Amino acid sequence: MAKKTAYQRVQAARDSHKISTDELIRGLTTDFFELHGDRSDGDDQAVIGGIGLLKDVPITVVGIRKGADTEENIKRHFGSPEPEGYRKALRLMQQAEKFHRPILALVNTPGAWPDVDAEYHGIGSAIAKCLQVGMQLKVPYISIIVGEGGSGGAIALACGDKVFMFEDSIYSVLSPEGYASIMWKDSSKVQQAAEALNLTPEWLQENGIIDQIIHEYHSGENLGPLRDFLANQFNELANLPIGELLRQREQRYRNF
Amino acid sequence: MLQSRFKMPSRDELKKRMDKIPDNLMKECPICHTTFFSMRMGKQRTCPNCGFGFRITARRRAKITFDTFDEMDADVTVPDQYDDKKYRGKIAKAKKVTGIKESVLTGIGSLDHQKVVAGIMDPFFIMGSLGSATGEKIVRLFEKATTEKLPVVMFTASGGARMQEGIKSLMQMAKVSQAVEAHSKAGLFYLVVLCDPTTGGVTASFAMQGDIILAESHALVGFAGRRVIEQTIMKQPPKNFQRAETVLDHGFIDAIVPRTNLKQTISQLLRLHQREASHG
Ligand SMILES: [Zn+2]
Asked: In total, how many domains does chain A have?
């Protein structure tokens, strides 16, 4: 198969048939129990969170998700969380720390939801808290960028010990459309923007931004191998003394 | 009668006289739209009518805020790996305009005999955007403060991520957050002053991580750009939805302080956070 261009990768990452965050959670864990709400303002549908067993080990899962149909897409703002979503994720991650549960974050978002209410409810502050607290959580923390990893809204849940990407996923400081419009005042130059942004998993791995590329899992496929892989990764991290875990995480980001 | 003694010149005559005044002598406030002679802004560069703080270089801010300021990491600058000609041109121009080599000026400042580690973002350096060297300087600032057990005062002014540095710019949000948290865990005080404009990735990281967050009057403070929001909701957002006063109303800022009172307020807050030496 010919290698995809950067823009083809963008399209593949956005494909509506891509495996959903919900299916990944159900496929990877057993006994999953979903938990709702940020205990302050509401329950953002774009963020799912809960507890489940990953090969008999309880883990906390948080995930940003798009919808399966138009109605769901609208409710979830096409995978763009509101401040309440980030606060829910943060609440569950802090709870995970209390109960010594590893954290798995699944990211599929074009970015945080840009509207007036999100500003009023402190979207900047919500992301800032996820970063500040997330990077110091005393439990293993793994993020997977499943489809789109757009800007601050993505890194908010991608600042753990390991960051993986699916083959057909992208991760960038801004969407190619936004980049084209800012840099060239021409939002039609999306293909050029996709190239310029270096948003492919291969480039990001070569440059140390992510740790590994995960083979693309399609809807309905057996997730067993991914489950084994993640269980191993969590195991390795869990074997480190907490001080060492935090030191390595700190080093990972200090080098950027 | 008074009127006859102070005869009002005609409209045309007034306009003619105004046109003779060089542009840089007159200034219009973007907030209250008052027009006034530039010299009335004073060395603080504020609007004499509404107190709005005009954008100023980091060097000027250091001068008007601190009694002494010893610059740190003055030579940390954009890495050579970014060799795009257009970008290098922007950097060269920014250096010339601001007199610094990255979008933040860092150093040890003193005010009223209190020592702080300070970071001042410069809105004239590629819009105060967050480059990888910006992140590096800020991290070093926090590391220095943590080692020397000093408070940090950070003036933010930024258009957000540095697009030219792509994902590396995004990573600075995580890198700096880590350093902020280490400083915080050491029980040290972090004071943020949000200046016009504070947006994007800076808002979504260290600008919102202060123990106390102040803002200058009428400063633009937000995450997403107005145009992006407009395209999303397909109508005009309210006029002042990202002004400091609105953000204060929604509970994300501790206080708004006009620039002319800022030095005094910072000094007061530092004093209130001093650990009593006599009890130690
Ligand atoms: Zn004014």
From this structure: 1
